[in-house]
Amino acid sequence: MKKTENKLSLEGKNIIITGGRSGLGFAMAECIAAMGGFPVLLGSSPQEVMETAAGCVGAGAGYHFDVTKTGEADGFVRGLAEKYGHIDGLIHSAGIHCKKPFEETTQEDFDRVFAVHVDGAIALTLPFAMPIPIPRPSV
Fold this sequence. Notes:
Blueprint: E1 14-18, H1 23-34, E2 38-43, H2 46-54, E3 61-64, H3 73-84, E4 89-92, H4 107-129
Parallel strand pairs: 1-2, 1-4, 2-3
């Protein structure tokens, strides 16, 4: 009988997850690890994101990265790709919300939410749109 490949396996896959310290991001990190993948968690709280990554089922890594620092995203993603050899996916789960009535919400409040939810997602996605050259050792 021929062995069939597990089409749901994430064996050998490195997946970046923003907002992986809690909520849906954390649940996805645990699922990725359970399926053989390597979740690379990004978070705004250095100690907490590293502790969360260490507690993932199987394996994981945590890095401090503020998704609103859009000018640093390309270099950061490329650095992770160089460190791990490849990055196979990105889950943008970072999020914030403004806890005040709409009529009290300022433009700065909207800008802050937009910076995390939209600007951060775009900045981290752009490096995937262009090849990330990884130096390979010659034999």
